[in-house]
Automatic annotation (TrEMBL):
The record marks G110, T111 as: Cleavage. It catalyses: Cleavage of a beta-linked Asp residue from the N-terminus of a polypeptide. The lineage of its organism: Eukaryota, Viridiplantae, Streptophyta, Embryophyta, Tracheophyta. This is beta-aspartyl-peptidase. The active site is at T111.
Amino acid sequence: MFHLLQIPTQVRELENDPHFNAGECSVMTNNGTIEMEACIMDGSTKKCGAVSGLTTVVNAVSLARLVMEKTPHIYLAFDGAEAFVSLVDYTQPMSVVDEPPVPNGDSQIGTVGCVAVDSSENLAAATSTGGLVNKMVARDVAALMEYKGLTLKKATDYVIKESTPKGTTGLIAVSAKGEVVTPFNTTGMFRACATQDSKTEIGIW
């Protein structure tokens, strides 16, 4: 059985990778600054935490977890989120984020995230990003399944193909039964899946 704390660990690894739009290497705003955001949810308890507008926290997903665990709130943003750092035992590295390098001169377009389900059908998920235009609210998928009775694949296909502009969206979704789908309407999406019995799947296109 996985532990919820494993989810932000995986996302932190991706935040630290300079090829993705997350963590220190998030894309710039129009003002030439970085504003990171992250969220995390424990499906078994329905607890969640989210932060946005971060400029000095290297691993935003770790702070989102602390919002979930240490406060009665769900979401903290900008100055409030930055001030929260001084009130908790934040053990991840912190620094004032300077202008990040852009690998090979290419723009970074990759939001990062991780979804997992254990043998008891408990789900947990986390995501982190420097910000993208037209980011999708994943609640749309759950609503289509709950209220229209769609399967996971049909719900995600509808959101990707009908609800979001082409070239803007990718999604990783896992059902309580362990079904995994990774639809996208972009040219490609870096993605990977692993199961407890060592089955793996990796894809880009």
